[in-house]
Each structure stands twice: as structure tokens, then as C-alpha cells.
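User: Here's a chain of 91 residues. Predict its fold as C-alpha cells.
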Amino acid sequence: MIDKTSRYAKVPSFVAKDGAGAELTVLELRETPKATGVFFHTPSEGERLDHLAHRYYRDPKRFWKICDASGELDPFDVIMPGRPVLIPPNK
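Assistant: Prediction complete.
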């Protein structure tokens, strides 16, 4: 079950079979929305995505909005101390 606040909440699902023939319910690919930033934040050592999400959105679980705006595939590659991070609007 996917939480209603998840970025995957509105992504359709379908049934597929695995290698053994068992049926699995899987999500379709989610298109990353084009994000326009409000401003850039330059992280310091020790800052994490959830810290930024809490600071700017008051919800650490919304870290994925910052990930989507970054273009990085791995969330751990989004924050590098000293490299500006795009902070998108909280819509």
C-alpha cells in the first residue's frame, strides 16, 4: 500500500508475472515532473535531504521533491557540501 502523500500515490499499477510465473502487482514508471526552483540552497557538511525538506516544507518525508528537481538518480548524490541544490516550490 502506498501512502496518499507519496510521489507514487497516483501512479497506476498492473499485474505482471515474475520468472517463476507468480503474479505481482507493480507500478508503472513514474514520469519525473519538470521542476522549477524557487531558489538554491548550498548544503553544509552533514545536511541531508530530509533536513532540507523539513526546513523548507515542514515535512521531512517530502525530500523526494528536492530529488525530482535535481536530476540525480540516486538520492545520495543530490547533496554534496558546497554544491547548490535546487529547492522547488511546495505544490
